[in-house]
UniProtKB/TrEMBL annotation, chain A:
GO terms classed as biological process: electron transport coupled proton transport; oxidative phosphorylation; respiratory electron transport chain
Protein name: Cytochrome c oxidase subunit 1
PANTHER family (alphabetical): CYTOCHROME BO(3) UBIQUINOL OXIDASE SUBUNIT 1, CYTOCHROME C OXIDASE SUBUNIT 1
Family: Belongs to the heme-copper respiratory oxidase family.
Primary role: Cytochrome c oxidase is the component of the respiratory chain that catalyzes the reduction of oxygen to water. Subunits 1-3 form the functional core of the enzyme complex. CO I is the catalytic subunit of the enzyme. Electrons originating in cytochrome c are transferred via the copper A center of subunit 2 and heme A of subunit 1 to the bimetallic center formed by heme A3 and copper B.
Species name: Geobacillus sp. (strain Y4.1MC1)
UniProt keyword Chaperone, yes or no: no
Record domain Cytochrome oxidase subunit I profile: where: 36-552
Keywords recorded for this protein, A-Z: Cell membrane, Copper, Electron transport, Heme, Hydrogen ion transport, Ion transport, Iron, Membrane, Metal-binding, Oxidoreductase, Respiratory chain, Translocase, Transmembrane, Transmembrane helix, Transport
Gene3D superfamilies assigned: 1.10.287.70, Cytochrome c oxidase-like, subunit I domain (1.20.210.10)
Cofactor(s) the protein needs: ferriheme a; Cu cation
Domain of life: Bacteria
Automatic annotation (TrEMBL), chain B:
Enzyme Commission (EC) number: 1.10.3.-
Organism: Parageobacillus thermoglucosidasius
Identification of the protein by name: Quinol oxidase subunit 2
UniProt signal peptide: none
Bilayer topology annotation: Multi-pass membrane protein
Length: 648, 302
């Protein structure tokens, strides 16, 4: 292979990116060295097994990926603003929409939510960490290096270009030569393994580590949604693992599972992909529902209306999510009986979802609604998501779907559910839990600016797309002819996208601004919260709770505040706390995964095998590891708690 | 605070307004809502039926949402108000479970009916015309086995006659979509799917691929020209007499990745290759043909 094939060349945008990447790396290395922060980085972050720090790292990566995916989106909107635009060529456009979709779902939405889960769930259930802290670190680093591997494709080797769905035979060697789709297969596999382990970890954490008194039906709604999401991950991700493995064999070793020759079957890929893919979209929507439930209840100062029905409906949605996948290809010609079945199961999802919407509305009713930034995002979710939801029901009607399928109507629909659902939830969640993560609040004024810009921009961008779809504009077109009547709406959509971009910039500026000037949260309970995470300090000590709290009711902390003076710790109650030790091994194993993956992408099997040996070595070392953690002495807890109280 | 409320209201009025503007401004461009044949009409009716329910849901939810927000905002005058501790309301929850169930049923029944109906020709008193459609990178090839003619990137059909498009692909998957005549179906390698369309009147209708198939996918357009039966017969005769013959070499050239213009031939490539029968997915050919036969009788002729 020549160097000119190894590095992507010929595009001024790419050269600019190359320069930016090199400068950023030099900058980071310089800052770390100049301020003598290497040891800090290693001790505090790279080797940490603390769920709060891992959560923060997840969210930092997710925000970076939101930036990357957002730039992709703006490039696409620029290209589509007017007919016959020459800004991007077909190949470049195809790569960009592929990476946009893949990154937004797998490297933005999921890690953002998993980050919030990491920070919040152990605190909500009164635990000191997740069930398997070491595994949790491994999950994160596998995700991180999977994402890194995927992202370097655009400067080294070339990006995947067959869509985030990577349908065969288009994604086969025959029609997609080059390494782009190898990156897709291998990078998603590595981060997928991490996600699967996260699912197992949180299932066990929630089932086994709840504080005394917290029965299943006293769990906060966010924790409930995370529990169900974990089950979805555990059932759905193995399908993706297998599908990606078969794809890897097809692309690297000449097997013919999905190819056009020797009995390969491209429809098999579509089925496997969506058997994972549909539960996947619920993996990113259920925790979002949980976040909205927490925030709506807190800022309405009211218990969640119809808690049991809410639990029932997420279980129902999770069950249905496994029997609807064919609605992604009604047009494959499966026959009317099959299509009718999947039509009805898909529409049925509207029933539990509708129940949830009305329960949120009735939580608000008779409440005392405080319009904080977190609450604005949560409130905006309701009408916007309903628009996405009803158009989803329209798409579920097989006979009508033949007219919407793969058009901009579909694009509008899934952006309305994914942005108004998941992205709004991420913004709501980060504003809500930010004081818990960092000890200071995000600025409300800037937060509201970002909200209005983004929310209005979102509607201006995506609402016209419903009509573009009905006008016959199909997804993934890199250009279109004049005279179809598509131009005005495309111009409008681009304006909306720019507003969303400005909203995102304001949000990022808010992070910087608040770090410098933000209001400190001394109480640990800035919103008058209802659940246990607000009972402890902001940010919580490494061990979360000096004494594990007793739970007597749903909204455990609210009950404590109502029946007494909240969560109080007497020094004589303190006992030594057992905590897990840090370990650098998850980080190092994941680096080995990265190199093994890189070797596979380029078919450099020597590199892949050497890296695989390191992975196995890491697993063996872990098996003989008898470090079972350490104890924090009572004296040290006293010191930490006094310091925290003095701060208050 | 007051600020936010005003903006919120403005935002509410924005949605229906834009809807109105769009519908009045460029309705003839909204091809899906401009049916030119019975298939598209059936889908149009279903779409309109569903839009009615959806607007109803949107109005109910938006009204409740606005009412609750306005009434229960935190204001200086309700500073002492403490919300009640209510857990839920079984009756209400049954109501808002039952109403969606009814709506889903009201949508599901016509959906299932239409889904079955679309697999059959809209009318049974005329013999349907069969046209084989092959998608290739990045063009559409139309073969008329009964007339023994072939076209590329355009297809002529007689008005008021059901046309059975038998779809397959010589490469990546595409989706055959002529919005004014009816919804789409995939064209896949080694597979044959069938889409029945019919045009009410003579006219020209744009078709395109709706499924991404690589570099020049955006240019995979074709024109469907509906003609009177007489005109169509005349055109067929003319093609049979004047158009050149297609041979394997020429066909191989057409299949090469790239864009081509319109072409017309006085025979079909089905003489030597049917891409739907290449790369058998189901073992030996005999068995496959049996299955295929079953599928055919399943799909139509009822």
């Amino acid at each position: 292979m020549k160097w000119s094939e190894f590095f992507v060349t010929g595009e001024p945008l790419i050269y600019a990116a190359d320069v930016a990447i090199v400068l950023t790396i030099i900058g980071i290395v310089f800052v770390l060295t100049y301020f003598k922060k290497w040891k800090w980085l290693w001790d505090e972050w790279l080797t940490t097994v603390d769920h709060k720090k891992i959560g923060i790292m997840y969210i930092i990566c997710a925000v970076l990926m939101l930036f990357r995916g957002g730039v992709d989106a703006l490039l696409m909107r620029a290209q589509l603003t007017v007919p016959n635009m020459k800004f991007l060529d077909a190949q470049h456009y195809n790569e960009i929409f592929t990476t946009h979709g893949t990154i937004m779902i797998l490297f933005m939405a999921m890690p953002f939510l998993i980050g919030l889960m990491n920070i919040v769930v152990p605190l909500q259930i009164g635990a000191r960490d997740v069930a398997f802290p070491y595994l949790n670190a491994l999950s994160f680093w596998l995700f991180f290096f999977g994402a890194l591997l995927f992202n370097i494709s655009f400067v080294i080797g070339g990006s995947p270009d067959a869509g985030w769905t990577a349908y065969f035979p288009l994604a086969s060697n025959e029609f997609s030569p080059g390494v782009g789709n190898n990156y897709y297969a291998v990078a998603l596999q590595i981060s997928g393994i991490g996600t699967l382990m996260t699912g197992i970890n949180f299932l066990v954490t929630i089932l086994k580590m709840r504080a005394p008194g917290m029965t299943l039906m006293r769990m906060p709604m966010f924790t409930w949604t995370v529990l169900i999401t974990s089950v979805l991950i555990i059932f759905a991700f193995p399908v993706f693992t297998v599908a990606l493995a078969l794809m890897t064999f097809d692309r690297l070793f000449g097997t013919q599972f999905f190819s056009m020759a020797n009995g390969g079957m491209s429809m098999l890929w579509a089925n496997l992909f969506w058997i994972w893919g549909h539960p996947e979209v619920y993996i990113v929507i259920l925790p979002s529902f949980g976040i909205f439930s927490e925030i709506v209840s807190t800022f309405a100062r009211k218990r969640l209306f119809g808690y049991k029905a809410m639990v029932g409906s997420i279980v129902g949605i999770a069950f249905l999510s496994f029997i609807v996948w064919v609605h992604h290809f009604f047009t494959m010609g499966a026959g009317p009986a099959v299509n009718s079945f999947f039509s009805i199961t898909t529409m049925a999802i509207a029933i539990p979802t509708g129940v949830k919407v009305f329960n949120w509305l009735f939580t608000l009713r008779k409440g005392k609604i405080r319009l904080t930034t977190a609450m604005l995002w949560s409130l905006a979710f309701i009408p916007n998501f309903v628009i996405g939801g009803v158009t989803g029901v329209m798409l579920a009607m097989a006979a009508a779907d033949y007219q919407y399928h793969n058009s901009y109507f579909l694009i509008a629909h899934f952006h309305y559910v994914l942005i108004a659902g998941t992205v709004f939830a991420c913004f709501a969640g980060i504003h809500y839990w930010y004081p818990k993560m960092f000890g200071h609040l995000l600025n409300e004024h800037l937060g509201k600016w970002a909200f209005w810009l983004f929310m209005i921009g979102f509607n201006i961008c995506f609402f016209p797309m419903y009509f573009l779809g009905l006008m016959g504009m199909t997804r993934r077109m890199y250009t279109y002819a004049a005279g179809l009547g598509w131009t005005p709406l495309n111009v409008v959509a681009t304006i909306g996208a720019v507003l969303m971009g400005i909203g995102f910039i304001v949000f990022c500026y808010n992070i910087y601004y608040s770090a410098r000037y933000g209001e400190r949260d001394m109480t640990g309970d800035p919103w008058d919260g209802r659940t246990l995470e607000w009972a402890t300090a902001s940010p919580p000590a490494h061990y979360n709770f000096p004494v594990v709290p007793e739970v007597t009711d749903l909204d455990a902390y609210w009950a404590m505040k109502k029946n007494g003076s909240g969560y109080e710790v007497k020094e004589e109650q303190l006992e030594p706390i057992h905590m897990p030790s840090n370990s650098g091994r998850p980080f190092l194993i994941s680096i080995a995964f990265f190199f093994a993956g890189f070797g596979l992408v380029f078919k450099w099997f020597t590199l892949a095998i050497i890296a695989a040996i390191f992975i196995i070595l890491g697993l063996i070392l872990r098996s003989f590891d008898d470090d079972d953690g350490y104890y924090i002495s009572v004296d040290e807890i006293k010191r930490t708690e006094r310091l925290a109280r003095k701060g208050a | 605070m007051k600020h936010g409320k005003q903006r919120g209201r403005k935002w509410f009025s924005w949605l229906p307004l834009s809807l109105l503007l769009l519908l009045s401004g460029c309705s003839e461009n909204i091809v899906v809502l401009n049916p030119k044949g019975p298939v598209a009409k059936e889908q149009y009716d279903l779409i309109m039926w569903s839009i009615g329910f959806m607007l109803f849901i949107i109005v109910v939810v938006f009204a409740l949402f606005a009412a609750v927000l306005i009434r229960y905002r935190e204001k200086p005058e309700n500073a002492d108000y403490e919300p009640p501790d209510e857990e839920g309301n079984t009756l209400l929850e049954i109501v808002w479970t039952a109403i969606p169930v009814i709506i889903v049923a009201a949508l599901a029944i016509p959906t299932v009916k239409s889904t079955f109906a679309l697999e059959k020709p809209p009318r049974h008193d005329v013999k349907p015309l069969t046209i084989h459609v092959t998608s290739a990178n990045w063009k559409w090839i139309f073969s008329y086995p009964e007339q023994n003619i072939e076209t590329v990137n355009y297809v002529n059909i007689p008005e008021d006659v059901p046309v059975k498009f038998k779809l397959t692909s010589a490469g990546p998957m595409n989706s055959f979509w002529v919005p004014e005549l009816g919804g789409q179906k995939y064209a896949m390698d080694g597979m044959e799917t069938q889409l029945i369309l019919q045009a009410d009147h003579p006219g020209s209708y744009m078709g395109r691929s709706a499924n991404f198939s690589g570099k020049q996918f955006a240019h995979m357009e074709f024109e469907v020209v509906a003609q009177t039966q007489d005109e169509f017969d005349k055109w067929v005769k003319e093609v049979q007499q004047t158009a050149p013959k297609l041979n394997k070499e020429k066909y191989g050239e057409i299949l090469k990745p790239g864009l081509v213009g319109r072409m017309t031939f006085s025979n079909t490539h089905l003489e030597w290759v049917d891409h739907a029968k290449q790369n058998s997915h189901h073992g030996d050919d005999e068995k496959r043909n049996d299955r295929h036969g079953d599928m055919e009788s399943d799909h139509y002729e009822h």
